[in-house]
Amino acid sequence: MMENQDNQEIIDQGTETTKENKEQNKEQVKEEKGKVTFTPEQQAAIEEMFSARFAREKKKSEAEKEEAAKLAEMNAQQKAEYERDQLQKQLEELLKKDRFNEMSKEANKMLKESGIVADDQVLGFVVKDTAEATQESVKAFVDLVNAKAEEITKQKLSGTAPRVQTSTSNAMTKSEIMQIKDAAKRQKAMAENIHLFQ
């Protein structure tokens, strides 16, 4: 019986070994299925394909780098143009202010010659872009001021003329006025008869 048991163990071991071998064989087959072997000609063709693809990608990458460099350079040029435009605008503003100051000085001189003292508000009103336009504006302003001043003067001067008392009832002679002893009364009489003392 022992022999049967030993045989049974050997059979069981063989079965286990066979099972293990079958599993190993299945794994090797799976590995071999995933692994492909090529002939030397096929291998050379594949390598040539890969090198051509690599060369194309490398060339494409270099072209992209060159394009990026050009874009960076163009951006630098655009940036330089923008800065130049900003400087140009600042220059134009400064020149405009300088022209305004020069025109203001000239307008101020012309106004002073006409007897008008000008402040910034008046200068802002009469100063124009060109010398001719400023001169015309100053002339128009001076004419306007003179016309208004004359109009105001006429209004103030027009009115009733002062009355001169010519009544003979209160008429006194110069000697009568001088004989008045009270100084205040004498002054009043002189004012009423001023024509006698002229």
TrEMBL record:
Residues 1-10 have a biased composition (Polar residues). InterPro entries: Gp46 (IPR025580). Residues 17-35, 59-70 have a biased composition (Basic and acidic residues). Residues 1-41, 56-83 are annotated as: Disordered. Pfam families: DUF4355 (PF14265). This is DUF4355 domain-containing protein.
